[in-house]
Amino acid sequence: MLLVSSIFLLLYRNSPKVEASRSEPVPIYLDNLLNAGRQVYDNQSPPVQHDKEEVTVVELAMYIEGMSSFRTQTMDFQLDVYFQQFWRDPRLAHNETRRVLVKDKAVLHKMWKPDVYFANARIAEFHEVTQPNFLVWIQPDGSILYDTRISMVVVCTLNLEKWPLDSQRCHLRILSYAYTTEQLVIKWKEDEPITRNPNIAMSDMHIVDLYPGLCDGNYSTGTWSCVTAEFFVKREITHHVMQSYVPTTLIVVISWFSFWLDVEAVPARVSLAITTLLTLSTQANAARMALPEVSYMKAIDVWMGACMMFVFGVMIEFTIVNYAQRQGRKWHRTDAEIVMASSLESVKSGNAEKKPSRGDLGAHARHLFLRLRTNERQHLVEAAPVVQPPQNEDAEAQEEVWAEQKETNLSEVWKESDPAERLAHWNEKENDASSPLMGNGRAHVRYGAAEKMKNRKCNDSSRKKEKWSSAIKQIQKHKRNGSVFGKIAGRNRAKKIDQTSRWIFPLTFIIFNLTYWIYYLYWKE
Question: Which residues contact 292 (CB under 8 A, 6 or more apart)?
Fold first, then answer.
């Protein structure tokens, strides 16, 4: 009976192999094979194929379970993958009807497996909860599948020239560490080597496509087999449009309100321009906080810089408006000076029709005012009334005191009163009993208030005074008119500049927007 059972077992093992979806535990003879030592199974050497010169081929496949956002500060991203390796080891062929499942790490360590690693992974680790997340399937012909779950942080050098309108291509490089291409070749499986969880969602990126690739390279130690997994991702711009582009656009538009404010509303216009400029600067600093320091210009830098230039242009426009308004007053004041110089010249020369040329205006005006001031003071001295003091032995001393007092009164009049008004109302001041020229009441009583003042005016002097009075009144009239007209002309010039700016600034900003978005979305690669 025992002999019949042994023959049946041998026939069963040598029967045709049938693939099954269920797995068997490690059979005893495989366990004994792995524990027999390197004389029977050498787990330090790659499998030997039918021809010893043939290399071991390892096929890779990857299922992406999770993927985190791309971090611009550290320039990396996180991956959570199921990493699968396929190779054939004839030494582990068995006669079981089903595949053998290995779940024990101790058994796994006794087997030979490829020494692949992730070249640009900053951190990589296996999952151990609640059990080590791996499996090994050994088919009857020795084909092996090694599947494990790995989480890693992959370094990706981001190109931020188009940020936040950018798209990125990041690569995960996988290669063998110890075996050159003469012993081991790594390649992707032909049928869907890289797949992903369709429910993957990132906050600011979305996956466009995944591409397998090769990256075999020659090094000083030999040629090493290498494959890459390329991730083509595109940044979601909705968040950045709402957080950066829309607020800054509104700030620029608000700064244009200055063109509709009154020209003389200096505090309001200055406050509006400075407030918008500071707010825009704060927005620009907040956008740069999330980015690393790079040596090239980013798209967000171009946008923020252009917006700040538009707001700064509003401040420059207000400066020009204010200057144009003040210059308008000066231009019309110059016209008044022309009339004034002409009137003075006509009085002094006796010819009312003679007018100075515009080229000699400055010299004529200075000369005539100097003469006016000298002649006026002289005329005041001549027109001052003389009170005869009582004749006694101190007559000479009293005469000196009176002359000194008269000079003091004339100096006070000269300092306190306006020359134009004094000359225009000369007759009134001369006859006014309370005028400083007459001295105070005490002096009048003291030196004989009963005496009458001598009238020292002559007909020529009267006509001269009338001419001076008429000329100065004409000057005052033209100065008042020039000031009013100058103010109106200045406001008109300033308003014209504001009206031009109301359509130049928006039109320029629209042209900039069209150029910016077309260039960064469609033109620049």
Answer: 72, 73, 75, 160
Taking each helix axis as running N to C, give the angle between helix 459-518 and helix 361-383, from 0 to 180 degrees, rounded to the nearest 10: 140
**Which tokens in the block code for residue 247?**
């607020």
Q: Any long-range contacts for 387-394 (C-beta under 8 Å, 24+ apart)?
A: 387/439, 387/443, 387/444, 387/447, 387/448, 387/451, 387/453, 388/447, 388/448, 388/451, 389/446, 389/447, 389/448, 390/447, 390/448
DSSP codes of every residue in 59-91 = EEEEEEEEE-PPBTTTTEEEEEEEEEEEEE-GG
Residue length of the chain: 525
Model confidence pLDDT, tens digit, residues 296-322? 899 999 999 999 999 999 999 999 888
Cα 154 from Cα 231, distance rounded (Å) = 11
Q: Read off the amino acid at residue 342.
A: S
Evaluate if residue 408 carries a pLDDT over 70.
no
Phi-psi region of 510 (alpha: psi -120 to 50; beta: other; left: phi over 0): alpha
DSSP-based three-state secondary structure for 167: strand
| Axis crossing angle, helix 246-255 with helix 266-289, rounded to the nearest 10 | 160
How far apart (Å, rounded) are the C-alpha atoms in residues 149 and 145?
13
What pLDDT, on the 0 to 100 scale, is given for residue 57? 92
- In tens, the pLDDT along 370-392 reads 554 454 444 444 444 444 444 44
More confident residue, 215 or 427: 215
pLDDT tens for 213-222 read 988 777 777 8
Reported as a single tens digit per residue, the pLDDT across 113-163 is 999 999 999 999 999 888 899 999 999 998 999 999 999 999 998 889 999
Determine the distance from the C-alpha atom of residue 118 to the mean position of all C-alpha atoms in its chain, rounded to a whole number. Answer: 39
> HSE on the CB side for 479, CA within 13 Å?
11
Query: 373 with 418: CB under 8 angstroms?
Result: no
* Contacting residues for 89 by C-beta, under 8 A, at least 6 apart: 47, 111, 112, 142, 144
Distance CA 189, CA 139 (A): 18
Q: Is 161 helix (H, G, I), strand (E, B) or coil?
A: coil
Report the pLDDT value the prediction gives residue 233, as an integer from 0 to 100.
92
Say how far apart CA 500 and CA 505 lie, in whole Å. Answer: 9
pLDDT for 447: 43
- Tell me the backbone φ, ψ of residue 256, rounded to 5 degrees: -75, -15
Whether 34 and 108 have beta carbons less than 8 Å apart is answered as no
Q: Is the pLDDT reported for residue 14 higher than 90?
A: no
Domains along the chain?
30-235 (2.70.170.10), 237-346+467-524 (1.20.58.390)
d(CA 138, CA 33): 14
d(Cα 351, Cα 338) in Å, to the nearest integer?
A: 16
Average pLDDT, the chain: 75
Q: How far apart are CA 229 and CA 209, in angstroms?
A: 11
Among candidate residues 345, 446, 282, the one with its CA nearest the CA of residue 438: 446
